[in-house]
Structures are given as structure tokens and as C-alpha cells.
């Protein structure tokens, strides 16, 4: 049976660690995208238990689902299309984010009495442009809606010395000054994500928004590992070998025969594939753990399965195989899979699972 095991004690540890590092700034824990694949509701509860001041999600629908599961604390969301019905989120006391005058009008029309404003300081994604910022702030003032926060998002925080970070911090300070000049108290000021929260103390302001670090994964792998940062990966992905068999020298493995055995080998079938969120880019690049040894993926990852080299291990069908975890037993980390696939650990943990892999929890209270 394939399983995603999420260690909620690791989540609590990470939240407590992050609170310690960023104090006195408040800690906003991001649980969007089903808690980065870890389970939004379970992670949210663990984060609250560990002292998270705020939670954050991307969409109003995520926010409403979290409220429906019983969450009652401060909760921010920020991503919506023009046809979004904000009324359910407003009824649940969710704090909504406005990017422009039109969106602010829709939020206020839905009955919101407070809102946060996002300014684009250089990511060129969501948020008001600097040219339109004064107009958005003035509209909030004129509508007499309470501005409970002003925020932005960094583009290059995983490279702490990148000049864009200083430029964005300066732009953010100027946006805050503009708000104050227009008679609007910015409220909770937040700019830093996980990497900036850990590596750029000057960017912390009143609060930080931490996503990937909550789950124990380093936000800046070229700078520091999870262990270096005092974080513990919370997710383990494991299953059982479906089949072990010998192959002869010259045998091709998996579609396209992109791997051909140069000697007699023993191979094993792992019953997970890209239909379960295993990246196809892991083909002949990633490793798994079987019987205490790292075993390379051979050939292409298929929809439902992949093949690994278990030569000399005495492996048998039914043996546990770990794709990635916290590394305690020598298994690969999600970061190892990210590097093998040319991507980031965020994508590895968020996409894994699908409908055929059960999620279980350790540390439930």
C-alpha cells in the first residue's frame, strides 16, 4: 500500500523554531494547496497549536473550507478572479486581499469591514502597481474600510544577496510611507516569505509569511539545508515493492529502453508513477531507499510504476521502499528529488499523491 505519512510533530517543531527565529514579528503560516500536499486542515491545526499567529491560503474557497473544518483564528487569503463570490469568506471572518480598485470595491460590496492591500514591489505578479498604489489606498480610505495590513512578496529571497531584495524592500517602505501620507494606517506590514524570514532579518517588519519552511524544507537550498536551519521535513512517501526479478545484460528497462543493463541485475517494480505525482523527470535520475540502501530509478517513470536497481540487496516483493522522507534512515530528501528533477522541493511535495495514495498522520492530538 502506498502512503504519504505526515509528521505533525515535525510541523509543530518547525513552527516553534520559526517563531523563535523571527520574534518579535508575528508568524503567518501558509497552508494553501492542501498544505503543500501535507493536508491543509491537519497542518493548520498543528500550526495553531504551535503558536502560529495567522494562517494564510491562496483562495477564498480554501479559506471557507478551513473555516468549515473548525479553524477560527486570523486567516488571510489573496487570490480570486473577478467573478468570485466573497460573501461566504466575509461571513466566516476571513481577511481578504485587494490588488486594485475594482477588486476592493467588490470585496467591500460583499460586506467586508476590513481588508489587506497588496503592492507589487517587483515580482510583477499579484498586487497593485506602484503607479496605481496611491489610488488603491485612497479608495480604501474613501470607502472607510479598515486596512488591517499592507503586504508584498519577494522574487529572489532564496538568493539573499540578490539586488532585487534590497530594491523590493525599498519599494515596500515607500509604499508604506505613501499609505501613511494618505492618512491610512498600514496595519500589519509583511513582506518576508520563508527564505527572507530566515535569512534577511531586515525584511521581517510586523509579520512574516512562511510556507515551505513550515513543512521542514529549506527555502534556499544553495545557502542552507533544512538541518542547517533547524527544520525537520514532515513528509515521508513510502510503499512496498510489487515485484523483484533478475534481468540479463543487454535488457532494456521501461519505455523507450532509455536504460539498458550492462550486466546481469536485479530490478524491482515500485507501484507509483506520474499518475500518483511522481515526476517523470525523475527517470534514471532519482533514488529510493530499499533495505537501507539508495537504489537508482532505472529508465522512464511510467504512469503507475517505476523500476529501481536492487542488485545484491536480497530484496523481496513486499519490502518497504521510501521515495523520500526526513533522511533519518538514509532515505532521499524531497530536496534530493527536486535536484534530480531540476525543480524545487515545493513542487515535489505538493504534487505527490493523487487519488490513489493514502495520507496518514503521526503526532495527531
From TrEMBL:
Annotated transmembrane regions: none
Pathway membership: Amino-acid biosynthesis; D-alanine biosynthesis; D-alanine from L-alanine: step 1/1
GO molecular function: alanine racemase activity; pyridoxal phosphate binding
Record has Zinc-finger as a keyword: no
SMART domains referenced in this protein's UniProt entry, alphabetically: Ala_racemase_C
CDD domains: PLPDE_III_AR
Active site: 32, 255
Class of enzymatic activity (EC top level): isomerase
UniProt GO BP: D-alanine biosynthetic process; peptidoglycan biosynthetic process
Domain Alanine racemase C-terminal intervals: 234-362
Pfam families: Ala_racemase_C, Ala_racemase_N
Entry-annotated residues carrying N6-(pyridoxal phosphate)lysine: 32
Catalyses which reaction(s): L-alanine = D-alanine
Cofactors named for this entry: pyridoxal 5'-phosphate
Keywords (A to Z) from UniProt: Isomerase, Pyridoxal phosphate
GO cellular component, one term: cytosol
Role this protein plays: Catalyzes the interconversion of L-alanine and D-alanine. May also act on other amino acids.
NCBIfam families: alr
Protein's UniProt name: Alanine racemase
Organism: Nocardioides mangrovicus
Amino acid at each position: 500500500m502506498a502512503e504519504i505519512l505526515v509528521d505533525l510533530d515535525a510541523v509543530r517543531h518547525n513552527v516553534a523554531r520559526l517563531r523563535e527565529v523571527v520574534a518579535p514579528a508575528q508568524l503567518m503560516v501558509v497552508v494553501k494547496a492542501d498544505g503543500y500536499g501535507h493536508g491543509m486542515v491537519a497542518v493548520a491545526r498543528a500550526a495553531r497549536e504551535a503558536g502560529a499567529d495567522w494562517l494564510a491560503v491562496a483562495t477564498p474557497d480554501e479559506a471557507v473550507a478551513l473555516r468549515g473544518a473548525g479553524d477560527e483564528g486570523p486567516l488571510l487569503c489573496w487570490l480570486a478572479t473577478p467573478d468570485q463570490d466573497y460573501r461566504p469568506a466575509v461571513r466566516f471572518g476571513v481577511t481578504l486581499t485587494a490588488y486594485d480598485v475594482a477588486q476592493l470595491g467588490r470585496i467591500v460590496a460583499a460586506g467586508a469591514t476590513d481588508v489587506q492591500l497588496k503592492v507589487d514591489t517587483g515580482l510583477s505578479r499579484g498586487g497593485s502597481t506602484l503607479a496605481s498604489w496611491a489610488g488603491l489606498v485612497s479608495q480604501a480610505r474613501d470607502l472607510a474600510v479598515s486596512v488591517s495590513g499592507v503586504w508584498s512578496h519577494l522574487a529572489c529571497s532564496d538568493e539573499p544577496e540578490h539586488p532585487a531584495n534590497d530594491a523590493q524592500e525599498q519599494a515596500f517602505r515607500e509604499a508604506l510611507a505613501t499609505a501613511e501620507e494618505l492618512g491610512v494606517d498600514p496595519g500589519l506590514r509583511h513582506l518576508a516569505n520563508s527564505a527572507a524570514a530566515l535569512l534577511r532579518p531586515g525584511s521581517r517588519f510586523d509579520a512574516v509569511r512562511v510556507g515551505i519552511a513550515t513543512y521542514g524544507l529549506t527555502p534556499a537550498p544553495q545557502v542552507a539545508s533544512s538541518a542547517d536551519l533547524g527544520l525537520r521535513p514532515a513528509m515521508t512517501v513510502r510503499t512496498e515493492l510489487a515485484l523483484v526479478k533478475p534481468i540479463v545484460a543487454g535488457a532494456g528497462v521501461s519505455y523507450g529502453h532509455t536504460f539498458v543493463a550492462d550486466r546481469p541485475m536485479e530490478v524491482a517494480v515500485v507501484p507509483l508513477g506520474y499518475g500518483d505525482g511522481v515526476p517523470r523527470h525523475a527517470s534514471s535520475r532519482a533514488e529510493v531507499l530499499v533495505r537501507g540502501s539508495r537504489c537508482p530509478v532505472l529508465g522512464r517513470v511510467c504512469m503507475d510504476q517505476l523500476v529501481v536497481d536492487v542488485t545484491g540487496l536480497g530484496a523481496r516483493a513486499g519490502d518497504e521502499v521510501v521515495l523520500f522522507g526526513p533522511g533519518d534512515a538514509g532515505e532521499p530528501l524531497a530536496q534530493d528529488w527536486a535536484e534530480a528533477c531540476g525543480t524545487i522541493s515545493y513542487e515535489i511535495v505538493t504534487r505527490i499523491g493523487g487519488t490513489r495514495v493514502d495520507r496518514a498522520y503521526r503526532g495527531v492530538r
